[in-house]
Amino acid sequence: xxxxxxxxxRDRLLDAAAELFYRDGVSIGVETLCRTAGxxxxxxxxxxxxxDEVLAASLERRAPGYAAQLAPGPEDAGTPRERILYVxxxxxxxxxxxxYRGCPYLAALVELKDPxxxxxxxxxxxxQRLQDAFHVQAELGGADDPAFLARQLxxxxxxxxxxxxxxxxxxxxxxxxxxxxxxxxxxxxxxxxPGEPGEPPA
Length: 202
Known about the structure:
Blueprint: H1 2-24, H2 30-37, H3 41-47, H4 51-70, H5 80-94, H6 104-112, H7 118-140, H8 146-165, H9 175-185
């Protein structure tokens, strides 16, 4: 029973951390975190060395689900170009949800401004995995310079996420078409025929 209680306490802390850090930023205090989670500070410190570790653990726990929201699954057939554009179409759809604040990993990196912070390491890994995925698809799609194109795609993704998260831009109809133009310029041109999702007909 003690093991179950411990797991439940940890889950409540990480759930509360994910919600609070994403909504209000990483500056929230331990008392607010523990009160929201319904956990005593003593219990928190039995599980984590401090708030920094809670933030890192909450971001790490969220990473697989966040990636699954964006990436096409193995059952989603398509060309490498279509698989890249799928990510941007999903980003557009997610940006319309109530309470959207942009990419949680980019937000953490920008707020923390500390490469040595444990949460910064988790966030960098999450961003690198997305860039690596772009790189793989760019190679498969015959891009002129896959590594450079992957970096450019990250600029579009993160810039769009930041602007939408700040409420100064709406992404639907903008982000996927911008990414498509970049793919054209990078040598991953659309095939002759009907247009792709997120693009006008050829």
